[in-house]
Write a structure and sequence with these properties.
The complex is a heterodimer.
Chain A (H helix, E strand, L loop, with lengths): L5 E8 L2 E5 L4 E13 L4 E7 L2 E5 L2 E6 L3 E7 L3 E13 L1 H9 L5 E8 L4 E11 L7 E9 L5 E5 L6 E8 L2 E10 L11 E10 L4 E7 L9 E9 L10 E7 L12 E3 L4 E2 L5 E4 L7 E7 L6 E8 L4 E3 L2 H4 L6 E10 L5 E4 L3 E5 L1
Parallel strand pairs in A: 2-10, 12-18, 20-27
Antiparallel strand pairs in A: 1-3, 3-8, 4-7, 5-6, 5-9, 9-10, 11-13, 13-16, 14-15, 14-17, 17-18, 19-21, 21-24, 22-23, 22-25, 25-26, 25-27
Chain B lengths: L1 E6 L10 E3 L8 E4 L6 H5 L1 E5 L2 E2 L5 E3 L2 E4 L9 E9 L5 E11 L19 H8 E21 L8 E15 L2 E12 L11 E13 L3 E11 L11 E11 L4 E9 L18 E9 L10 E12 L11 E15 L4 E13 L10 E13 L6 E2 L2 E14 L15 E12 L2 E11 L10 E14 L12 E17 L10 E15 L2 E14 L7 E15 L2 E14 L4 E17 L3 E14 L5 E14 L7 E14 L8 E19 L1
Antiparallel strand pairs in B: 1-9, 2-3, 3-7, 4-5, 4-8, 6-7, 8-9, 10-11, 10-36, 11-12, 12-13, 13-14, 14-15, 15-16, 16-17, 17-18, 18-19, 19-20, 20-21, 21-23, 22-23, 23-24, 24-25, 25-26, 26-27, 27-28, 28-29, 29-30, 30-31, 31-32, 32-33, 33-34, 34-35, 35-36
The chains are: A mainly beta, B mainly beta.
């Protein structure tokens, strides 16, 4: 005698889903199949061959694989079977979904217990981020000299930069984490160098730049640095920067000194203030005015590290030709005469 | 050796100063002033060395000026000026001296025009070779783990590791060639940079030619093209490029080929081995009418190539993409760059899953316009400080599927208007930036159009060095950054049920600090709030406070520390999480030039609804240098270093764990340097 079981309902969570317009996406779904056994006890398979993506009623693609569970029920007993899956949406499908009329895209699954069937479907839309929440889709790490593998002089000032692309808006929760040379590379979990909490917004796609604190350079050896962040579900492996600290007799200057004023292209006179941010370990700061595109210093001024701003003297301005433009930069020196800070070149004009 | 040269200006008034040239290239410079020089005159004097005003670093020995150069003086001619500052703000050079430092006795360069066919080849080569240098800093460590507890998977008990940084170059005739490379070594290849025990990290070689009419050169290894366009930007990769142009920069051309992935190691020296990750391109800039600073400049760029991850670096797109594009840019300024205009257009063909994928190849456009203007030709002086204000406007329209393999991370799908202003008044700088941006530029049917309106405001101020009762404040500074952003829906397609957009974000960061003598400190606090009026996401508030302090107790002891305390509040669920981080560090020279100690302690606490293990981490190293390295003579040091990590799971005692490890390390430090 054949049991007359019934699939009484099939539901899916979520009932609506947002997919990224660009690129491949993954979609986590949970199907709930409820069935009732009205007559004799029996064990039957409950299954679904695949999910179906339809646009305007036309099947565009079959997604996922077979879902199967055995169901054993006594008479008058019912149960709900839960099937979870992650569907992969290719870039081309995402594109078709984005271009389809709103409301016309459905993903459905039909479940059968060999005697009856049930179907559930969800509506699929395109939008900014999946579910509208902040999602990180790219992290590019580098040092402030653009390198990704570097050898740094002991005591030098170096920072890392994380270029982060994201979708939607929200609070970016991240941490700069570092493994010191005192620990074995494979075992240490590392320590938090700095916690980052930054509110980020975009109309769809956004980008932000996060600069690390000055990296530790007091101990010889290899350091590993990464920027870990929440909501980076699509990123399978975080990038890691390596830098080795050693005592050097020479070094290459880096653009790690932040000039606050004047602005790029400013006209310079005795009232122009050159201001900058502190560089730990500096003994003196030097403003250098150079011929454009070259390293020839034509004028400038040096002050002790207790000053974070200066004005040029009249005789320094006398070194400049009226009507000409010059490059200028800042450099910081430590007590050993090493250049421990340098600012990017900017333009100024001598009226 | 130092050669006193000559004295240009004898006494112009009733007194003269004498200059005693430094005896060595790193010795102090002394200007002997008359013993009876009055104090008022003394305060009106300034000193300039090689164009740099060094007055504020002069010290007085009686009434003599003493200056200790920050760096060793280079082996060539130097000029020292003694300047009188007049009350009306003008100045006059009172005396000027020129002296020559001959670094290693090799003498100064001769004039190349002296060379002729009869000059012996070796002499010709020596004189063509204007300068050459080779510098290498290396460190090699043999480590033996002597103690360990619960450290799980680790490197081998004994390892050989190290690194080096090499710089070399020469200048010959009109050519200058510079090279740089570094390497990493790790005998346990599971933890090596690549699969090799020792391998190249990054390197670059640059050759530049500076002729009378032409300039040019080429680069190999890790470098950037220097282009900042819609197609090529922030693109630092391993590759090759060549450039040529006229000396007046009227015409500049560049060709380049790069790998699209960031690579290390010597296996792919050019970065171009993989045909699936490679792009090539050209750029040409022309100033058709003039070469002055305001001249019109036209730039054309073209590229094509293949790359992984749709060319956007580390991302969730793992397919191989193909792309090409061309673009043109126009730059023009007026009034010595008082007003600057920049316009760009680019067109791309981009297939995000490659030529063999199902996704279509997109043909997309991008436009960018920018104008900025300095309000004052000669800014007003207010309170002794010059005021300058810049204003600017921009417009960017980037199609939804615009991508360039050579501009990874560019934000596409935006139609944005921006307005900004920068203010500079003495040590005060401030900026404001307003943005109006919409998405769905391609008008996709199943995509809503959202609008972002935001305002950013920031300012910095540096005080003068404090004196008197406020001297302890040193040289303080303050800064503030804030923004306010509203995101809303402009257009919802009929039948769209994918959720609404209506939220408000705001953030403000206040900070400041000071450096005083041997102290520095900085303090900041950030407040961020997110309100989602659609209730798709939780409303949240985040507060984060940070404090950093440093104290150079003496030349042999430096202390520093910092703390961060954060509170994250989920206003919908009323769940809060707290995070506390503390760092304390010390560097001490226990025995001068012999024994050095490094120590740091780190505390990470996370509790509340985001509860996780607390961790205490201690790192320490004691290094005994028994043979101090000198240039071209290796040094030896023995170190004991280790770390301890303690985790406290609080309610979950299963997470309680203490891990520690200690190593004996033998270090070889070998700096090399040669120069011509």
């Amino acid at each position: 005698m054949i049991a007359e079981a019934n699939v009484t309902s099939v539901t899916v969570t979520p009932q609506r889903a947002n997919l990224n317009v660009k690129g491949a996406s993954s979609l986590s779904l949970t199907w709930n199949v409820t069935r009732l056994e009205p007559t004799a006890p029996a064990t039957v398979p409950v299954s679904s061959t695949n999910a179906v993506l339809q646009i305007n009623g036309t099947t565009v693609a079959n997604l996922g694989g077979t879902l199967l569970k055995q169901s054993t029920l006594s008479p008058a007993q019912s149960e709900t079977l839960r099937f979870s899956e992650v569907l992969s949406i290719s870039a081309s499908l995402a594109r078709k979904i984005a271009e389809a009329p709103a409301g016309s895209v459905l993903i459905s699954r039909t479940f059968t217990d060999t005697q009856t069937t049930g179907l559930a479907r969800l509506s699929v839309f395109s939008g900014t981020g999946q579910g509208g929440a902040l999602s990180i889709n790219r992290i590019d790490l580098r040092f402030d000299n653009n390198a990704r593998t570097d050898v740094i002089a002991k005591g030098d000032t170096r920072r890392a930069i994380a270029e982060i692309n994201f979708r939607s808006s929200g609070l970016l929760k991240g941490e700069w984490r570092i493994i010191d040379p005192t620990a074995s590379l494979g075992s240490a979990r590392g320590r938090i160098l700095q916690v980052v909490r930054q509110q980020v917004v975009s109309s769809g796609q956004g980008r932000t730049r996060i600069v690390s604190p000055a990296l530790p350079t007091t101990k010889n050896g290899l350091y590993l640095l990464t920027f870990s962040v929440e909501n980076a579900d699509g990123i399978t492996e975080l990038p890691v920067l390596r830098y080795f600290v050693l005592e050097t007799s020479t070094k290459r200057p880096t653009d790690n000194l932040t000039a606050l004023s004047p602005g790029n292209g400013a006209r310079v006179n005795q009232d122009t203030v050159f201001a900058w941010e502190n560089v730990p370990g500096a003994l003196a700061y030097q403003v250098e005015i150079l011929t454009p595109g070259h390293d020839e210093v034509v004028s400038g001024k040096v002050v002790s590290a207790q000053d974070l701003k200066l004005k040029l003297s009249a005789f320094s301005l006398d070194n400049l030709n009226s009507g000409e433009s010059y490059d200028w930069r800042l450099r910081a020196f430590d007590k050993s005469g090493r250049v421990i800070g340098s600012s990017p070149r900017q333009l100024l004009y001598m009226p | 050796m130092v050669l006193p040269f000559f004295c240009l200006h004898p006494a112009m008034a009733d007194w003269t100063a004498d200059f005693t040239p430094p005896e060595t290239s790193d010795a102090k410079i002394r200007i002997d002033l008359p013993d009876d020089l009055d104090v008022i005159t003394l305060t009106q004097l300034g000193v300039e060395l090689d164009g740099i005003d060094i007055t504020s670093l002069l010290s007085l020995d009686g009434v003599d000026f003493i200056y200790k150069p920050l760096q060793t003086l280079e082996g060539n001619e130097h000029t020292l000026k003694l300047v009188m500052l007049n009350p009306d703000g003008s100045s006059e050079v009172r005396q000027q001296w020129t002296f020559t430092i001959v670094g290693d006795g090799s003498g100064s360069a001769s004039n190349l025009s002296d060379l002729n066919e009869t000059t012996p080849e070796i002499e010709m080569a020596e004189r063509l070779l204007r300068s050459a240098y080779f510098r290498a800093d290396t460190l090699t460590e043999f480590s033996r783990r002597v103690v360990q507890q619960n450290i799980g998977h680790a490197t081998n008990r004994s390892t050989l590791s190290g690194s080096g940084d090499v710089n070399s170059g020469f200048a010959a005739g009109k050519w200058t060639v510079d090279g740089h490379a570094n390497y990493l070594m790790q005998s346990d290849v599971d933890f090596a940079l690549t699969e090799r025990t020792i391998d190249l990290g990054e390197y670059d070689v640059n050759a530049d030619y500076q002729g009378d009419t032409l300039t040019g050169g080429f680069s190999l290894g890790h470098h950037d093209t220097g282009l900042e366009t819609l197609l090529v930007s922030d693109f630092y990769r391993r590759g090759v490029s060549a450039r040529i142009g006229t000396s007046d920069r009227r015409v500049e051309a560049q060709g380049f080929a790069f790998g699209t992935e960031s690579v290390s190691g010597a296996a792919d020296m050019t970065g171009l081995n993989s045909t699936e990750n490679r792009l090539k391109g050209v750029s040409l800039s022309v100033k058709p009418f003039a070469t002055d600073v305001d001249a019109l400049k036209l730039t054309g760029t073209y590229y094509d190539g293949l790359g992984e991850g749709s060319g956007i670096g580390l991302s969730d797109l793992d397919s191989s993409a193909s792309g090409s594009g061309w673009g043109i840019g126009v730059e023009k300024s007026f009034g010595h760059q008082r007003t600057r205009l920049k316009a760009q257009y680019a067109h791309t063909l981009f297939d995000q899953d490659g030529d063999h994928g199902d996704a279509p190849k997109d043909s997309s456009d991008a436009v960018s316009l920018l104008i900025d203007h300095r309000l004052f030709d000669e800014g007003p002086v207010i309170g002794d400080d010059l005021l300058n204000i810049d204003v600017g406007f921009g417009y960017d329209r980037v199609d939804t599927f615009f991508e360039s393999l050579a501009n990874p991370g560019m934000i596409s799908d935006r139609d944005a208007y921006t307005a900004f202003s920068n203010l500079y008044w003495g040590a005060l700088s401030a900026n404001i930036y307003a943005l109006h941006e919409t998405n769905n530029v391609d008008g996709l049917a199943n995509v809503p159009t959202d609008r972002l309106k935001s305002i950013d405001f920031g300012m910095n101020y540096s005080f003068d060095q404090q004196t008197g009762s406020r001297e302890w404040l040193g040289t303080p500074y303050l800064y503030m950054n804030s923004y306010f952003a509203s995101l809303g829906r402009v257009k919802t397609p009929n039948g769209y049920e994918g959720g609404d957009t209506d939220n408000l974000s705001s953030s403000i960061t206040l900070g400041g600090g000071a450096s005083y003598d041997v102290w520095y400190w900085s303090l900041s606090h950030s407040y961020s709030r997110f309100d989602d009026y659609t209730n798709i996401s939780s409303d949240t508030v985040n507060n984060l406070t940070g404090l950093d302090v440093g104290w150079a107790v003496s030349d042999r002891l430096q202390l520093n520390g910092g703390t961060q305390f954060g509170v994250f509040e989920d206003l919908d669920t009323n769940k809060n999480s707290f995070s506390t981080n503390l760092y304390l560090g010390a560097t001490a020279e226990l025995v001068p030039e012999k024994v050095e100690l490094n120590f740091d302690y780190n505390l990470n606490l996370a509790n509340g609804s985001g509860d996780s293990s607390d961790s205490h981490i201690v790192n320490s190293e004691v290094e005994w240098t028994f043979l101090r390295p000198r240039t071209n003579r290796p040094g030896l040091a023995l170190a004991l270093r280790g770390s301890m990590e303690e985790f406290n799971g609080n309610a979950d005692s299963a997470q309680n764990e203490t891990e520690y490890q200690a190593y004996m390390v033998l270090r070889v430090k070998a700096p090399f340097s040669l120069s011509y």
